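ESCALATION

Customer reports they have been waiting on this structure for their group meeting. Please prioritize. Original submission:
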Amino acid sequence: MDVCAGLGRGATGFTTRSDIGFGGKDDVAGEKEEDLGDSNYNEFYGYGGALFSDTPYEQDDQEADAVWDAVDQRMDGRRKERREAREKEELRKYRAKLPTLHSQFADIKRDLQSLSREDWVSIPDANDISHKKRRVDTMKDRFMPAPDSLLAQAQAEQAGSHNELDTRQQVLGGITTVSGDADSSPFYFIGSSTQSQFTDLNKVGEGRNTYLQLKLDRVSDSVSGQTVVDPKGYLTDLNSQIRNQAADVADIKQARLLLKSAITSNPKHAPAWIAASRLEVIAGKVSQARNLIMQGCEAVPLNEDIWLEAASIHPPEQAKKIIAQAVHHLPTKVSRSTNLLTLIAYSSGLIRRVLRRALELIPDSERLWKAAVELEDKETRVLLTRAVEDGCCPLSVDLWLALARLEEYQEARKVLNNARKKVPSEPQIWFTAAKLEEANGNGQNVPKILERAMRQFADMKLKVSDDRDFWQQEAEKAEKGGYPVVAEGLIKVSADVNVLPHERRRVWEAEAEALLERGAVHCARTLYSSLLQYFNTKKKIWMAAANLEKKHGTPEALDQLLKKALPATTFCPKAWPLWLMGAKEKWSLMALPGLTGCAGARVILGEAFKINPDNEEIWLAAVKLENDNNEIQRARTLLEKARMQAGTERVWMKSVMLERDQGNMEAACELLTQALEKYPTFAKLWMILIQIKQSMGLPDEARDAYLQGTSKCPSSVALWIVAVHFERDSNQLTKARSLLEKARLKNPKHLWLETIRMEAALPDNRKLAATRLAQALQECPNSGILWSEAILMEPRQQRKAKSVDAIKHCENDTFVICTIARLFHADRKLEKARTWFNRACTLNPDFGDAWAHWFRLEQQHGTDETRAEVIRRCKDANPRHGEVWQRVSKAAGKNFADVGEKLMAVVQSITEKASLTN
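Update from on-call: job pushed to the front of the queue and completed.
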């Protein structure tokens, strides 16, 4: 109550906080549940709570919710059918993998409706196997308390204090426990004596040794007496066999019970009879197995497998009778029972009679006719004719083809025509007819037959008419079988199958390459021929066809192909590689009629000049032809014409080299002066000039030449190296090092090797060379030639470790691999060396030094065959590069007849250098 003293006199009371209450804002319902802090804020979705949850739920909100619910139901209804169908499909796949027990036994449960009361009564009771086993296990672990009489007897014995062993203990060594007279005592219980549990161990060992001796005698060799058994592990194996046999016996008993139950419940189930019979055979009870299977034959006489099983476990005489019974019950079953009957009849000499009787019962069996034909020698044609033409097996393609093979040409054609009428959809009949025509010299009929076959298959809408792979496979088979015309016809007739016109080139080229890889050369040749009909102006296709003939064909075939491609009136006269190929083949393999090989090559090159007058390659090929045949004046004349018409850098260089090789240094210098006026930046001309001046004994002019050359061609590494070698050979080492440093400034990564070799060649300068090598490898870690030099600079004991490092950095570099092969050669590891040399030459066939080192290996340790193989492969590769290879092949005054002669010169140079080093 608000009471204040003196209120009537105008007094007023004071007010406290408790009178006015808490000064904060009253809580609004619902706000405590809102979390509007930063932790409940998302940059994309905003606050996690409902900002308007405290607003009243009005009628417009209810209408909006109803609209959105209707939209959700509409969208859910649109996807409902697809979702339910997807769920059903997923459930079906799941149930197919893991079916339920209900689905597994559904058909069996339906069949239970047809069972009668007698069938239900005859169902045997389930075997109480688990309960029996549980009772046995319980008995093993059961313990019984000892009676009072036994305890009293034990106490009395202890009071008597035995001081000596019982007689049984003396005999058995203490195994038997003393418990009074066990034989006469009425208190003889389990555990009171162990005499019944154990036997004499000496006798056990003797019996085991006897059994072991018998087994060893049984498996010993009857001739030499040597055992074939491991004596150390025999006892262990014997123990495992005894345990396995015990387990097998238990499994056999359980399986026998299960199979007996299966046979009793369903005596018409043949697999149960067969399984029970086989189980008895495994158990060694063959007689019981035979009785079981015969009972099964009586119970299921219309099952072929059970008769076959019965015949297989009986002796031949009884098996013959069983099969006869089987044929009586199953006269139309041919497959396996007939084969077994045939085998039994063959052993008794009655096979023909059996087959004839079987054919009378089953005249439309193809297998029986084939078996009968295989046995006949004289009446084979008669049997085949009866089989296919008398209506027995008119649809058997194998029988028709077998009959056609036995007939003469005209009769075979009639047979194949009849077969084609009976089986119009069988391709093998058409293919056999085509092969027949080719074999009898009528190859012109093959394309017609195959075209008719393709048309007929297309009209019948057979799948084989659209199968390109099938036709190509048959073409390959025909080529391997010796029928090239048939193979060609098959490729041509199927070339356009499922191929659009704009895809012909791509598809046919890919198929031709694939056929070549599989060894079908004639099929690939046919495809290239088809390509040339549609793309006769494509140089690439002509080159591919020419390479095929060069590798796999004959010189005549290659000549015919080039005749089609090269003349001016035909398709590809501007393809200069084809002209060069034709000239080379004429020169090396054959000659034109009435001319030598060289003359034939001249004729081809002469025609090439008329069509390609400005082609550098043709001019140089003609010069090489004349130079290799020592026709120097002809070569000089050709080069004069070439300088006038072509006038390229290489033509001038070849002109200079020709004069230099002939010793005409003045003429060579004059030509060089003219050439350098036209091509001052062609570094090879400057290098030749330096070499000529050096050989003429004019060092000052040679020095002027390299100074001019390096100023004109500062990026030519080879020119800088020639200049450095010139100063080094002149004993001007300071100038050589200065030149090398200057060259490295302009070509920083390309002259490390030359720098290292120059330092290493100087006496007492190996450490500086090693330092340079380390700098070079740091700047060029993937340079194979630097790693190769690093391996060779190491001491012999450390080269292997350096080789491992080189392989890590340059796994497939030819220089490194060749160097490692040389190390193997030096260590006399010849097979490894051959493997690595082969790898190097395969990776880069153009590297001539690898071929030379390999041939040197074969020259020292190989045979004539291995040396010939290396030379052959080197000629095919025709290498042009390599440090020693180029130095020898381009030496002044050298003119090698072929690659083999050049290889010998390089090998000789390597051998001389190795002898000087050693």
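Sent to customer with the following note: Strands lie at 41-42, 46-47.
Escalation resolved.
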